[in-house]
Amino acid sequence: MAHPSIGHLQDMPLFGGTSEQALAVLLQGARMYERQAGGFFVREGDVTSSLYVLLHGAVAVRRHWGEREVLLRRLEAGDCFGEMAPLDLHPRSASVQALEPSRAMEIRAEQLLVLFETMPEQFALIQMNIARELSRRLRRLHNQLFGATSDAERALVERILQREP
Question: Measured between alpha carbons, how far is 69 from 91 in angstroms, rounded to an integer?
Fold first, then answer.
């Protein structure tokens, strides 16, 4: 499978402002994965340290909640997923399943380490882009939680927030 063009990657939020040289370093070790509709890129609980950039298609991000599986969000081409793994080194917090034929590029933590060692300023830029994406997602979650309108919804949000982790 062919790698995406550097220009195409530079248009994505994760790589905004990143130099061609830095992207070339990441592309050297990048792996491409294709999934048909219903196929999984990652599963909740997997232990890995890679992040993925969705190049084509659409995926659902789902998490188990008791006996249910909850749709957290839908991602489209240009979005990234798994970005927490290289930062916190914890098991996957959600599953990512293709909704249609999809293709993603895997960037392993080792590739990011090479970038850190060779181009620390570009590594820092990508880390800032990851932080921005995580911040956008956290803000979206806060807006959903605090957008509760009924007394019952507000009471539920308060109970959830008061729970000890």
Answer: 17
Neighbours of 164 (CB within 10 A): 3
Q: Which superfamily does 6-162 belong to?
A: Jelly Rolls (2.60.120.10)
Q: Please report, in tens digits, the pLDDT of each residue of the chain (165 residues total).
A: 667 778 888 888 889 999 999 999 999 889 999 999 999 999 999 998 899 999 999 999 999 988 999 999 999 999 999 999 888 888 999 999 999 999 999 999 999 999 999 999 999 999 999 999 999 988 988 888 788 788 887 887 788 778 777
Q: Torsion angle of alpha carbons 36, 95, 2, 88, nearest 10°? A: 180
The total number of residues written for the chain in this structure? 165
- Beta bridge pairs of residue 106: 31, 52
* DSSP secondary structure of 12-47: SGGGTT--HHHHHHHHHH-EEEEE-TT-EEE-TT--
Residues 50 and 55: their CA atoms lie apart, in Å, by 16
Q: How many CB atoms lie within 10 A of CB 91?
A: 12
* Residue spans per domain, the chain: 6-162
